[in-house]
Amino acid sequence: MAINDRLGLKAMQVSRESKSDEFVSIVVPCFNEEAGIRELLARCRSAASDAVGERYEIVLVDDGSADGTWRAILNEMDAHSDVIGIRLSRNFGHQIALTAGLSAVNGTVVFVLDADLQDPPELLKPMLRHMKETDADVVYGKRKSRVGEGRFKRATASIFYRLLREATDVTIPVDTGDFRLISRRVADIIARMPERDRFIRGMVASVGFRQAPFEYDRQERFAGDSKYPLAKMISFAIDAFLGYSMILLRFASLAALAMLVVLCVVILYSLYEWLYGRVIPGWTSLMIIIATASFFQLVALSIIGEYVGRTYLATKERPLFIIDEIRRSAGERDLPGD
Ligand code: UDP
Ligand code: MG
Questions:
Q1: What are the TM regions of this chain, as residue ranges (predicted)?
Q2: What is the pLDDT of residues 116-136, one digit of tens each?
Q3: Which of 158, 240, 296, 335 is 20 to 30 A off residue 216, Cα-Cα?
């Protein structure tokens, strides 16, 4: 019986595949990437054959593209047998497209890549080696440099990752995108997590196991423009903060604390003024009532915030814990219930 059944808890236990003969699934979400598909596949193929021979597949997810992306994927499928094409019914966004890809993999390790070749597929081999050497379940690409991205993008990304690091409980590595190599069991856990506002790098970090960084230089986009305009970047950042910290909800508690200080000052000051008869009648009581009322309102809000926050996190139905392995000492023993 699984330990989680026994404990009656929502937990996940996943077994680890043997790492000796990897089968690599390359997952690429594509949104209006028609111009780059050919080059992408050519480079993925040569990188994969170099690393694992024939033992790979390429899962392309068309995230409701409006251009000829799907046609380009179909063309590739006609010419080669290593492609799995998934077409979403509309544009669901990068993170959901990626999840769709993760849920369709057959491999023992999963290589997550952007369609624009900013993250070089050729790193598959060294990353696989790094995974073996460090015995890690996740090898995440850490950007040493970002070529061809504007100052604004680099600055906002840098601030975002650092703020997020301060705000969250799980350690989400800085300067890290979705470019990574993950074991199948981690991919399965992520694909099975039912939360709706998905921030995959946070989800991967929260899964645990051993996670090793791999430094690389981020390249320029091969073709087309960034599919992350400012509005999408902001909504992405909001997903990250809302999903991985209660910091915004805790704002009311902080405000209540600040209000308590204001309240004390106001009471002391208005009483002092009143004692010396320097105030218009009614001012003292008015000030005290206003400050006290605001304080209690903020306290009430922060209590509600705490309940809402906990309910919100509970609706995400994240596993309470994830078990790496269970071992039992050798020899037969009678266990109650067996
Ligand atoms: N993408 C997607 N759906 C979207 C937006 C982007 O599948 O709604 C894909 C896109 O095709 C690319 C990856 O997500 O493969 C990253 O997007 P992009 O390169 O535009 O982001 P940036 O590198 O500029 O942050
Ligand atoms: Mg890109």
A1: 251-272, 284-308
A2: 888 899 999 999 999 999 999
A3: 240
Which residues, chain by chain, have CB under 5 Å from ion ligand 2? 114, 116, 118
Which residue's structure tokens are 């308590």?
A: 260
d(CA 84, CA 74): 9
Q: Looking at ligand 1, which atom is closest to the CA of residue 32?
A: 11
Cα–chain-centroid distance for residue 21? 28
The answer to whether the pTM exceeds 0.90 is no
Task: Give every CB contact of residue 72 below 8 A, 6+ residues apart in sequence.
Answer: 34, 37, 38
Render pLDDT for 243-302 as a digit per residue (tens, 0 to 9). 777 777 778 888 888 888 988 888 888 888 888 877 777 878 888 888 888 888 888 988
Tell the residue number behind the tokens 């080669």, with chain if given: 80
Joined tokens for residue 265: 């000052």
From CA 318, how far away is CA 320, in angstroms rounded?
A: 6
Whether 168 contacts 242, CB under 8 Å:
no
Could you tell me if 206 and 170 are in contact, meaning their C-beta atoms sit under 8 angstroms apart?
yes
- How far away, in angstroms, is 252 Cα from ligand 2 center? 37
